[in-house]
Each structure stands twice: as C-alpha cells, then as structure tokens.
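User: Okay, second chain of the day. Same drill as before: sequence in, structure tokens out.
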Amino acid sequence: MSFSLVGLLNFASPGDRRSRRLASGLNYGARPKQRLDVYGPRQASGPVPVVIYIYGGAWNEGDRRDFAFVARWLAGLGYLVVVPDYRVLPEVEYPVFLEDCAEAVRWTLQHAAGFGGDASRLALAGHSAGAYNAVMLALQPSYGVADAIDAVVGLSGPYNFYPFDVPISIRTFSGAADPLATQPVNLVSSAAPPMFLASADGDTVVGPQNTMALAHRLREHGVAVIERHFPGFTHPSTLLELGSLLSRRSSLAGEVAEFLAHTLRLAPPDSDAMIGARKEGAGR
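Assistant: Same drill. Structure tokens below.
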C-alpha cells in the first residue's frame, strides 16, 4: 500500500469531529527527521492518557503526516496522541530508528502535561515495522523507556524473523552485533506490559506466525496479551480499521479502544466515542 493512498485517508477522518491537532512539526531531536505532531480530544475534563503511534514502512519510508487519520481516531477516543517521524534506511540502520523512537518517547514524557496529557498512563501503538519498534522499546530496557510504557498495541508486526531472508531485513539488520537480540520473541520477560496483538490471516508481507510466536512467549512469562487474527485481511487491513474510510467495520477498532481504555484507565470514558468504536465493530 503506497503512502500516497494512506495520505488520502486524512481528508475525511471519522475522528475529525472529536479531535484536533495541537501541534505540528515539533522537534524532539536535532535531526531534520526528528519531528512529531500532537493531537488531542476536542473536549477533556482533565489530564488524559497518552498514546504514541509509530508508523510502519519497512524501516525505509514513511511520513507522520500520512497517518493523521489514526491519530485523530485515537484522539477522538480521549487520548493525547503523539506521532513521530524517525530516521530510516538508507540514512540509518538498526538500531538507530529505535533510538529515535525512544527519544520521541522521552520527549513525550517531558512535554505531555503541557498539552493536557498524563504521561503516567502511556501506551505505544504501531503497524508493521512500527509495531516492531513499539514492542522493542517495551521489551528492551537498554533504550531507557520500557518502565514508562503501560501497554502496547501491535498490528501486523514482525517479531520473529531471524534468520534474515528478505532484502529489507538483510539491509536493516545484517550489521547487528547480536542478531538474536533484534528479535522481540527473544526479549520477553515477566516485566513486559500488557499487549494487544493483531494479525491478518492473508498477510503475505508479515505472516501471522509472528504474532502467534510473540503472544506465546508473553503467555509463557505470565504477561497479559490479547491475540487476534482476522480472516480475509491483508497486511494493510489492520491499520485501515483504525479511523479509516476503508474500514471493513470489523471488531478490531472496538477491541483496540477497549484494550486501551482498560490498560490506561480512561476515566471517565468518552461514551460517544466508545459507542462509535463499537458500532464500527458490529459487523464482525
């Protein structure tokens, strides 16, 4: 799916009525790509939980502005939402893109309160390579932000893909000093936060066995995990369910909304937004 197509979805996001963009292009680092946008609910009765959305793009492309539809949907549910850009190939390789995302998390922890957010209730969410980034930050303490992450939503993410056997993973990870340490399945411990993991049964880009393997390891360590597989979906489908006009109206959006509300203690709930999310899932 091209990012130009994704960008078209921003013109009529269902979350527009309940959300607003609070800031655009803020620097979280000194590099040109280290910028982020901030979204929030139009109405909030107090500090709201925070969700950082990390987009995918095979670690070699992507633009935060193309994913405003996801941010608006999340903000419409009652969250402060941060969407960072981060450096990708060919400018950088593993682990620099993870270090950039960790820096965006640190920026959020420092600045969320100024936008009405409560960073003590923080989730990461991502699709594809972005799901990998989100999960890695939550599982690997060396990035310095794992303790601050209360929940993770991973959609169609690669979590168990060693040995590297496709060109993009070879280019991205072949320089890693310890290839096994690049794999989220090898980093799971009982300290991991609750996770919602979804995959598409028809995904030929990132096979659902990735989600199965990570969910299995999380359960082995006693970590709360919701594992969902959607028949008839392809790789982009799990992303397009979140605030997109191309949504199939599956249960995915409502399940993500309920998972975040529970883990981040969204109270009082935005009843209108939650009802809308459940209606979107009524067809499955």
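Residues 3-280 form a domain with the Rossmann fold fold (CATH 3.40.50.1820).

User: Thanks, on to the next one.
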